[in-house]
Design a protein that fits this description.
Blueprint lengths: L5 H34 L2 H4 L14 H15 L9 H11 L4 H17 L10 H7 L4 H16 L5 H6 L3 H7 L5 H14 L3 H9 L3 H7 L5 H14 L3 H9 L2 H8 L5 H15 L5 H6 L4 H9 L5 H14 L3 H9 L2 H9 L4 H15 L2 H7 L2 H13 L4 H15 L4 H5 L3 H11 L6 H12 L3 H10 L2 H12 L4 H14 L3 H7 L3 H12 L4 H15 L2 H8 L3 H27 L1
């Protein structure tokens, strides 16, 4: 471990001088004190008020401890700061009634928290109880700050802090009149609240009310930490109930207009967590005559990425009803979302495309969503971020939802088809989003215009990708959808020419389809076989394969099924 810096050494020298002065003047002070007490008339009245005029003096064991503590420091005590001897000394100093000694202990812990990056043993938490309970403001400031430092560096177990009984004095400090103490105690509470058990303990100790009060503080540091603590508490559904009961919703909603972007983010994220539970939606939207939707929509234009991203998340969580979605669309949310799709932030892009996906699910919104600007933005987004499974999956779902409307032709003419084909090439087969991309393309190929557009863009890599997807057996849905895309494009000469380079692979997946347990695979296999059979090269390859035998098996199964159906119908009619 390194040596103490010059500033710290000077502090220690000053401290040594302080204790030495106290020791030399101790006897004189006692005599003077006794003289004053004797002269005071309170003794005759039986009163003890005079004792309050004097600061606590050093007890004999405290003086010895202080002197030993200084000697340890002078000998290079920093080499073993967490040993048994310093712990006993710190306990004595911390539990002293003398503010100067408590300040020494608090200062020592503060120094350790700022210059040491090692775990603090559990027994070292004991002195914190007395320090946080101290009536001296400087002790409160230093001890609460050192506890914050230890927590932020991960050098104290967060659950252990609560188990050692430190939560109560921390929450009591929330009601201090000093902004520094408020700031530090809020920061402690915020850090402790990342643990589920701690969140329950904070709620049970009625820590919510003072936090809500400090969320309106005029001190930006206090306000940030208070709202940050509330954000962490909203991760618990039980505490959400407490927060709403204590009036948190109006506080958080109006903080969305704070000039501080950190406060905006924390309050928006807290509201997003609460909005996950639909039972709170009515109360959230009722506040300020649906003020929440308006301010969230305005936050989409925030220059701070995490604020606009979190606004998208909150709107998405609120968009569970058709009426709420319609209100969002009516507030011109679409142009802002189009801008966010082109953001340089991955989080913003993902959040905005997820919100659009929710909005696209309701039929009444689809006509408004099928605009040239949005389709252009989606196509560009897919082309620019082909390897992002979240973007590809959501964008594919949006396009598929919109393609069910009367505006399918506009989708076909947009860059969306090309973007989907590029995503098809790039997404890993293990990603769920590949299913959404292939499903969307398969849906579009049912329209001849989309099929022609796709055939124009087909090349060897895309053809190879489709054939391989159809042939793999581990992921059944992408396999079926890829084979469906191929089947719809077979009648085009260009596609047939490209497929001839993969006769063996196509034959293999068709054989697999014909022996598949699901009828839809068998039907797709038969349909594809019939179309390919018209080509001489495919026909020759099929004659040399087991295809005829498999078709015969399907035919036999079908006849047996028909016999069973006839028997069942006859039994029903009789």
């Amino acid at each position: 471990m390194g040596q103490l810096c010059g500033r710290c050494m000077q502090l220690l020298r000053d401290f040594v001088a302080f204790v030495q002065r106290m020791s030399s003047d101790l006897l004189h002070s006692i005599k003077e004190c006794l003289t004053l007490i004797i002269k005071c008339s309170c003794l005759k009245q039986g009163s003890s008020k005079a004792r309050q005029l004097y600061k606590p003096v050093l007890q004999p064991h405290e003086r010895v401890t202080a002197q030993e503590f200084l000697q340890h420091i002078e000998r290079g005590f920093e080499t073993s700061p967490l040993g048994k001897d310093p712990l006993e000394a710190l306990r004595t100093l911390a539990f002293s009634e003398n503010p100067g000694l408590q300040q020494s202990a608090a200062l020592y812990y503060l120094h350790m928290s700022q210059h040491m990056n090692i775990p603090l043993p559990a027994e070292h938490l004991e002195p914190f109880y007395a320090l946080l309970r101290s009536a001296d403001l400087e002790v409160q400031q230093m001890s609460s700050l050192s506890l914050v430092n230890f927590l932020l560096e991960g050098n104290i177990d967060k659950e252990l802090v609560v188990q050692m009984g430190l939560l109560e004095p921390i929450l009591d400090l929330l009601e201090s009149d000093d902004p520094t103490v408020q700031c530090n105690s809020c920061a402690c509470t915020m850090t402790l609240a990342v643990s589920e058990s701690n969140r329950d303990a904070i709620g049970a100790a009625r820590g919510v009310t003072p936090l809500l009060s400090l969320a309106n503080s005029y001190d930006p540091r206090v306000q940030q930490n208070a709202v940050g603590a509330i954000l962490n508490l909203t991760q618990s559904e039980r505490i959400q109930q407490v927060l709403c009961k204590e009036g948190a919703l109006p506080v958080l909603i109006f903080l969305l207009e704070s000039p501080d972007s950190e406060v905006q983010y924390y309050s928006c994220a807290a509201l997003s967590n609460i909005a996950v539970n639909a039972q709170h939606h009515e109360a959230m939207l009722r506040t300020g005559e649906r003020f929440l939707l308006r301010v969230l929509t305005s936050l989409l234009s925030s220059p701070v990425d995490k604020v606009s991203s979190q606004a998208c998340v909150c709107l998405r969580n609120l968009a569970t009803s058709a009426d709420t979605q319609a209100e969002m669309v009516s507030q011109d949310v679409l142009p802002k979302l189009c801008s966010l799709l082109a953001s340089g932030s991955e989080a913003v892009r993902r959040a905005s495309v997820a919100l659009l996906w929710i909005l696209s699910q309701h039929p009444h919104n689809q006509d408004a969503l099928v605009c040239a600007e949005l389709l252009q933005s989606l196509g560009t987004l897919l082309s620019a971020h082909t390897t992002d499974p979240v973007i590809a999956g959501h964008a594919a779902c949006i396009i598929k939802n919109l393609s069910l409307s009367k505006n399918r032709e506009r989708i076909i003419e947009s860059p969306c088809v090309e973007g989907l084909l590029q995503a098809l090439l790039s997404i890993d087969i293990r990603e769920d989003s590949l299913h959404y991309v292939t499903s969307c393309l398969a849906e579009l190929t049912k329209e001849e215009g989309a099929t022609l557009r796709m055939v124009q863009r087909m090349d060897e890599p895309l053809t190879k990708r489709l054939v391989r997807l159809a042939g793999q057996v581990e992921h059944t849905e992408p396999s079926f959808q890829a084979a469906s895309i191929i089947q719809h494009m077979i009648d085009h000469e260009k596609m047939m020419r490209l497929l001839k380079c993969h006769i063996r692979e196509i034959q293999a997946y068709l054989e697999n389809f014909l022996s598949h347990q699901e009828i839809r695979f068998q039907q797709l296999g038969i349909s594809t076989f019939c179309r390919l059979q018209a080509d001489p090269e495919f026909s020759l390859a099929f004659r040399k394969s087991q295809m005829a035998k498999l078709l015969q098996q399907v035919r036999q199964q079908t006849e047996e099924t028909q016999e069973l159906l006839r028997a069942a119908l006859c039994h029903t009619e009789s």
